[in-house]
Design a protein that fits this description.
single chain, 3 domains, 5-stranded parallel beta sheet, 18 helices, 8 strands, flat, binds adenosine-5'-triphosphate, binds magnesium ion
């Protein structure tokens, strides 16, 4: 989803534009151009890729955005795309679906067997296309999903630094944090609701920017905190050190301590229902959590009281959105949250055994109810497949979340769930 508050980064966007001009069909000798945007967690790599995509919708009639942090997620997305394009049916194998999709990409412009009306138009003309592989921290995962096209544009975002050698990407763009002034301006852009910002507050904004090392994720979080609590930068500086005691032990690889600090501050002002909700989200795949999981299947979980009360549920999500801890995607009715917020929430949750068990049990029960019961003797019913696909990545993350032992309370529900999936 486009970030309405996208700030700065014009130099990076223009470098991307320059690189990708070489891939366009209007270029002298159009090529396949791939660029990896790399840098630490929370610097704003994905944000730049998404902004680039929205700015160039006219240039690229075909844009494919893939979450590329895990192989199973890439597989599901390729399968779904193959089905959407009419290449694959419900029982086409993953490998076949992937090959068909890659074939389609490689032949965009002259593929004769396309069904969809919109796609048929594409066979008339040669088209520019853009693929984004987002959060591909393990770039080697992309081997199987790399199109062998003569021309086209590919953006990879990754925390892995670009070495040049043995890399998929032809070019690397190393993202750096905002400098002190940019960071301060970014922060102040959240405070446009205040009629006047005093020189002292402008100075404080610079100090905060410095304290956060210009890290977009932390500054964005601080900006939302100030905006929602009507707290100007000078006051924020007063508050900031008081809330950071707990954080030292929360070490999330790839992120700076300042992000953890401001995350703790955001948490401290959340109502209990929002914290509960964040805990539930912490054991799922953070990229696209179906809202229906909570609204339709939350009723027989330990969290049913707030999930069933529409007003409470709305308030809980509103507070999380206000603090920019989650994003709600209304088009496909999903929730997503940044990996950092999820990891931090999970680290805390893991430390509270009973609470973890309750959350784990709650989510397992919900996913279990979301996948209809099948009788294992009959052939699989196709309508179950959609549900399995929707929740497969979530079920796998859930399983990974109990690496230190499955909570006894949830053992049966988890067994039942994986039997359904495996069946
Ligand atoms: N240029 C920007 N303008 C506005 N907000 C930004 C910008 N860059 C980053 N942000 C904010 O910071 C958050 C983190 O950025 P983003 O997810 O792009 O970082 P990332 O480098 O991809 O992190 P990770 O490596 O963890 O995936 C975003 O959700 C967004 O709210
Ligand atoms: Mg990212």
């Amino acid at each position: 989803m486009r970030n309405n508050r996208f700030f700065g980064r014009e130099d990076f966007l223009s470098s991307l534009r320059t690189e990708f001009e070489k891939s366009l069909i209007t270029a002298d000798n159009p090529r396949l151009v791939s660029v990896i945007i790399h840098g630490l967690g929370g610097f704003g790599k994905s944000s730049i890729a998404v902004e680039f995509m929205y700015r160039h919708l006219q240039t690229f009639p075909v844009i494919l955005f893939f979450y590329a942090d895990r192989q199973d997620k890439l597989d599901i997305q390729f399968v779904q795309l193959a089905r959407l394009l009419g290449f694959a049916s419900d029982d086409t194998e993953i490998v076949k679906s992937r090959e068909m999709t890659l074939y389609w990409i490689a032949h965009l412009g002259n593929c004769p067997s396309l069904r969809f009306k919109e796609i048929e138009m594409l066979i008339m003309i040669d088209v520019n296309w853009l693929i984004i592989f987002d959060n591909a921290d393990d770039v080697s995962l992309l081997t199987q999903y790399w199109p062998s096209s003569a021309h086209g544009s590919i953006i990879i975002t990754s925390r892995n630094s670009f070495t040049g050698k043995g890399s998929f990407a032809g070019q690397g763009i190393k993202l750096v944090p905002f400098d002190e002034n940019e960071g301060a301006e970014f922060l102040l852009s959240f405070l446009d609701i205040f009629p006047d910002i005093s020189p002292a507050d402008k100075d404080a904004a610079k100090l905060i920017s410095k304290q956060f090392d210009g890290l977009a994720l932390g500054l964005c979080q601080a900006g939302h905190f100030m905006r929602n609590k009507a707290c100007l930068p000078t006051k924020f500086l007063d508050l900031y050190p008081q809330n950071c005691g707990e954080i030292q032990r929360l070490k999330i690889p790839g992120y700076t301590k300042s992000v953890a600090d401001v995350w703790e501050m955001s948490l401290s002002i959340l109502p209990q229902d929002s914290r509960d909700f964040l805990d539930l989200l912490a054991v799922l795949d953070p990229d696209s959590i179906p809202i229906k999981l909570f609204q339709q299947y939350g009723h027989n979980s330990p969290f049913s009281a707030f999930l069933q009360d529409t007003m409470r549920y709305m308030k809980a999500t509103e507070a999380l959105v206000d603090q920019s801890l989650i994003e709600i995607n209304l088009r496909d009715e999903t929730i997503s949250l940044h990996r950092f917020f999820q990891d931090s929430t999970f680290q805390q949750l893991k430390g509270k055994k009973e609470r973890f068990e309750e959350v784990f049990f709650g989510i397992t029960t919900m996913i279990n109810s979301a996948i209809p019961q099948d009788d294992y003797l009959s052939m699989k019913h196709h309508d179950i497949w959609d549900a399995v696909e929707t929740f497969l990545a979530h079920a796998e993350i859930l399983l990974g979340r109990c690496s230190e032992g499955i909570p006894p309370l949830a053992t049966n529900a988890l067994l039942d769930l994986f039997c359904k999936i495996a069946g």
